[in-house]
Design goal:
Layout (H helix, E strand, L loop, with lengths): L2 H29 L13 E2 L6 E2 L7 E5 H6 L16 E6 L2 E9 L17 E5 L2 E3 L12 E8 L13 E7 L7 E9 L3 E9 L6 E12 L16 E15 L2 E14 L5 E4 L4 E2 L22 E17 L2 E18 L8 E2 L10 E24 L3 E26 L7 E3 L11 E18 L8 E21 L5 E2 L2 E2 L2 E21 L2 E12 L2 E2 L8 E2 L2 E14 L4 E13 L2 E11 L6 E13 L4 E13 L4 E17 L15 E3 L7 E13 L2 E12 L10 E2 L6 E3 L7 E15 L2 E10 L7 E7 L3 E6 L4 E9 L1
Parallel strand pairs: 6-9
Antiparallel strand pairs: 1-2, 3-8, 4-5, 6-7, 8-9, 10-11, 10-46, 11-12, 12-13, 13-14, 14-17, 15-45, 16-19, 17-18, 18-20, 20-21, 21-22, 21-23, 23-24, 24-27, 25-26, 27-28, 28-31, 29-30, 31-32, 32-35, 33-34, 35-36, 36-37, 36-38, 38-39, 39-42, 40-41, 42-43, 43-46, 44-45
């Protein structure tokens, strides 16, 4: 279907639906005029446009998870949103490493390795207005969260760089100035436990203080046969947060927060589900179903991430219609990587001798990653009778450094591969394969204004906005294969020094068809920063990639505000796409044009020629069936089409390939959805609460190129496999509002993956090694006790 036809048909459906709902709403309102107890949906408040607004008055596609929704779904960290609670948002670990997360919205954000110092993701994650610059550290435990807003589509005007796919806006609960305390304790299978303590202190000297602490842990769910090593899939998360709010005057507030988090995880277990063409060792290797015990025991320890940071905010109401806000932040993180998730690497043989004796396997991937960042944003927010506006400036600076090494941890001692011994784990003696450091500086100025002309009775809203950004990256790749890089016989660090300028506009026109129906048309753009690939040899810069998107939408309330339906359809252009290609042992220096050889296979990044196409549709429905029962449903169709692209880098024989290869949409299912039901009923002086949700997906590709091609025609000979479709059900039942002294208690039972559904979410294939896969987590269950005072 052509994009124009797609939008036209979607527009017709949306307009017809809105017209019918408007007519029905008017009838229902008349019929219910004398009904005083009819249930209504709660107003959802968002801050997507830098001011507090009703979700239904905000002409942007947004999904919101409240604090209660997060509790009902058992969300302890962003990792748990990977089950599909918000269909257009995909959260997944980077390969086997839950300590670094992939974030995609509408199929845009990450195509390959975004964990390097000079590379970024295309979905911005913000906590209380502070941008978190790295995917490392995103798996830490969440504190007392008021809501999580997912803004879909480019957010380049108000949120800036690295929001081409969208933004995830996390809002923490502020100090109340009144004494409150919440204590929670719980336990579950796989040795899991959780405890939380939240304390609000009474206001004194116009200062309110809030303390939050959390500890949560779980053993691994795949046993490691090496008893001295950690199991696969476990975690220990803990952290605390101190927040203070000073209100010296009625129109001025200053808030400060400090948080400190610890996240220790073990990698997921990569199973060999289908053998390849090579000979397999005799040790147990093929596991077609979700494993409870790994096929071979290997050294494995926790990967530990530590994060901490300060945030200082100021909010000054200069007049009733003019505010000045400031957000200052400094953050620091360190992330270790001990990844033996691909424990079975090397368990196949391709040597002509057919003898396994002396062959190494269980490749251990180690890395150390450090980052610090400083940011300062100043906002001016105001309004007149006909105009609402926001403007501001932003400065952001980060320093990042990493290194990586990989080596085998075991070796076969017989010809058949049935016996083996473990090798030394003296990490210091192992070669550093690569190391790099980068300093990023970003400066931006932005503005957005909404005008409401009088001639249409305040029903028309015209919004214009734009942001100018300048990014600079300075750094170097200073280690390759344990030494300084060598290019054309010259030894020395490969420098990166590149500056990019960018302007992102926004045009949004919305119209109130009635008090309960608003429609809008929007054009926006966003981009992901340029950078360099530290898996390459000569560390050449690549340019930013960008998304321009047109969106139409509707926000509808009907049945006397018992039901809410929000619709969005979009089409877009995906430009200068950053693609990685293998360049085996031979390259051309971009400066001299000379052919050079290396001692390793390299990965090079290029901005692909041609434009990709984006299109999709989203629907969110909420319905208060009764005062006790509420239903929610959401669906997303997201399609990313990237043109077939030529690998521009020379291969091991020095040849250039001239035939393009197909590129897949990765880490995004085309169709996904979520449904849920919430029930609440008084019971013997207390309250019964019940929640059930089901989340489905048609699976996704984890790698965007096929496995093997004809060396001349580039016809596909082995296709890339796709992850399996899934249906994950989560549930929680609680007895709450139980009077206990001066407080109230809650007893709850919960389960994630209640039906113990099994599917492969990550699947990759090699001709020799076969199919390797990550399975989803098995059913987890537990209970919690909470006391509020």
């Amino acid at each position: 279907m052509k994009l124009s036809n797609f939008l036209a048909s979607t527009s017709t459906i949306a307009i017809s639906l809105m017209a019918s709902q408007a007519a029905y709403a008017q009838t229902a309102q008349t019929a219910a005029a004398d009904t005083t107890s009819a249930p209504e949906l709660e107003i959802v408040v968002v801050t997507a446009q830098k001011r507090t607004e009703n979700l239904q008055d905000t002409p942007i596609s947004i999904s919101v998870l409240s604090a209660q929704a997060l509790e009902n779904r058992g969300v302890k960290s962003l990792v748990d949103l990977g089950d599909g609670a918000i269909p257009s948002l995909k959260v997944a670990p980077f390969f086997s490493r839950p300590g670094a997360l992939i974030m995609n919205v509408r199929g845009i954000g990450v195509l390959s390795d975004s964990n390097q110092p000079a590379r970024d993701q295309g979905v911005g994650v913000y906590v209380d207005g502070v941008y978190l610059g790295r995917p490392q550290g995103l798996g830490t435990a969440l504190y007392d969260i008021e809501s999580i807003e997912v803004l879909k589509g480019p957010q380049g005007t108000l949120f800036g760089r690295n929001t081409e796919g969208g933004a995830v806006n996390i809002v923490s609960r502020k100090p109340s100035g009144k004494f409150k305390m919440t204590a929670l304790a719980g336990a579950g299978n796989f040795g899991s436990y959780k405890s939380e303590l939240r304390v609000d202190l009474p206001k004194f000297a116009n200062i309110s203080i809030k303390l939050d602490g959390v500890i949560t842990a779980r053993d691994g769910w795949v046993e490691n046969p090496l008893v001295s090593a950690e199991d696969f899939g476990g975690y220990k998360k803990r952290g605390y947060r101190v927040a203070a709010l000073w209100e010296p005057m009625a129109n001025l507030s200053v808030d400060y927060a400090y948080d400190n988090g610890y996240d220790a995880t073990t990698t997921l277990y990569l199973q060999l589900t289908e053998p390849g063409t090579a000979r397999l060792a005799a040790v147990p290797t093929v596991q077609a179903k979700r494993a409870k015990v790994a096929g071979v025991g290997v050294p494995q320890q926790e990967s530990i991430g530590k994060t901490w940071g300060h945030r200082l905010g100021m909010d000054w109401n200069i007049t009733d219609n003019l505010r000045l806000k400031s957000i200052t932040s400094y953050r620091d993180l360190s992330q270790g990587q001990y990844d033996n998730g691909n424990a079975q690497s090397g368990l196949f043989l391709i040597q002509a001798s057919g003898v396994f004796t002396g062959q190494g396997f269980a490749r251990y991937s180690l890395a150390k990653f450090t980052q610090d960042q400083f940011s300062q944003e100043v906002q001016v927010i105001g309004e007149t009778e006909r105009l609402k506006y926001v403007g501001g400036v932003l400065f952001y600076e980060e320093n990042v450094e990493d290194n990586a090494q990989a080596f085998n941890t075991a070796q076969f001692t017989d010809a058949t591969g049935s016996a083996f011994t473990y090798l030394s784990l003296n990490y210091a003696a192992q070669r550093i394969d690569r190391a790099s450091r980068v300093k990023t500086t970003s400066k931006g100025v932005f503005g957005q204004a909404t005008y409401n002309p009088a001639f249409l009775g305040d029903k028309l809203h015209i919004t214009l906005g734009g942001r100018y950004t300048q990014d600079k990256k300075e750094g170097s790749l200073f280690t390759v294969n344990g030494a300084l890089p060598v290019v054309n016989g010259v030894s020395g660090a490969r420098a990166l020094n590149k500056t990019w300028d960018r302007f992102d506009p926004l045009v949004n026109v919305s119209y109130d068809l009635s008090d309960d129906i608003m429609v809008y048309v929007k054009h926006s753009s966003g981009y992901k920063s340029g950078g360099a690939n530290s898996r390459s040899l000569f560390y050449s810069p690549f340019n930013p990639e960008a998304v321009s998107m047109e969106e139409i939408g509707a926000k509808i309330e009907f049945f006397n505000r018992r039901a809410r339906l929000n619709l969005a359809a979009y089409t877009g252009t995906y430009e200068d796409i950053q693609l990685d290609f293998s360049a085996q042992y031979a390259q051309v220096d971009p400066v001299t044009g000379n052919l050079l050889t290396t001692l390793r296979t390299t990965t090079e990044t290029t901005n692909a020629p041609g434009d990709g196409k984006l299109r999709g549709f989203e629907a969110d429905l909420s319905f208060a069936a009764t005062e006790q029962l509420t239903f929610n449903a959401s669906y997303a169709y997201n399609k990313v089409e990237i043109p077939a692209t030529v690998n521009p880098f020379r291969q091991s024989n020095g040849q250039l390939i001239t035939v393009p290869i197909p590129i897949y949409q990765v880490y995004t299912p085309e169709s996904s959805g979520s449904v849920s039901a919430d029930y609440e009923q008084p019971f013997m002086g207390a309250t019964i609460q019940a929640h059930l949700d089901a989340n489905f997906s048609d699976g996704f590709y984890a790698n965007y190129t096929d496995v093997a091609y004809d060396p001349v025609t580039r016809a596909v000979t082995v296709r890339q496999p796709k992850g399996e479709s899934s249906m994950i059900v989560n549930g929680r039942i609680a007895l709450t509002d139980i009077a206990v002294g001066d407080g109230v208690a809650t007893f709850s039972l919960w389960s994630r993956n209640l039906l113990d559904e099994e599917h492969i979410f990550y699947k990759s294939r090699s001709v020799l090694g076969g199919v390797n896969a990550f399975f989803n987590e098995p059913r987890t269950i537990g209970f919690e006790v909470k006391l509020k005072m």
